[in-house]
Amino acid sequence: MLTGKQKRFLRSKAHHLNPIFQVGKGGVNENMIKQVGEALEARELLKISILQNCEEDRDTVAQQLSKGTKADVVQIIGNIIVLYKESKENKQIDLP
């Protein structure tokens, strides 16, 4: 679990990122979870945008992605989810 201080730090880091994935009408599926997991391993921190035609609410989507990839949800703001997962091979972010 992330502390408040760590979340603030990661939010400031994520501010400049653009969303890499989009969750649309199909919602979250195995393939998407796999791809998000691989992207998290490479980048540690990423944004996912939820399109307006997505049938599930953003909290559900965030929970599914977080559970599937074993990542932490840093923030849900508007239709953007910020996820963080420490990388095994490719560690770039040192948490405070």
UniProtKB/TrEMBL annotation:
SUPFAM superfamilies: YhbY-like. InterPro entries: RNA-binding_CRM (IPR001890), RNA-binding_domain (IPR051925), RNA-binding_YhbY (IPR017924), YhbY-like_sf (IPR035920). It comes from the Bacteria. It holds the Pfam family CRS1_YhbY. Residues 1-96 form the CRM domain. One of its GO terms (molecular function) is RNA binding. Keywords: RNA-binding. PANTHER family: RNA-BINDING PROTEIN YHBY (PTHR40065:SF3). NCBIfam families: RNA_bind_YhbY (TIGR00253). This is RNA-binding protein. It comes from Cytobacillus firmus. The lineage of its organism: Bacteria, Bacillati, Bacillota, Bacilli, Bacillales.
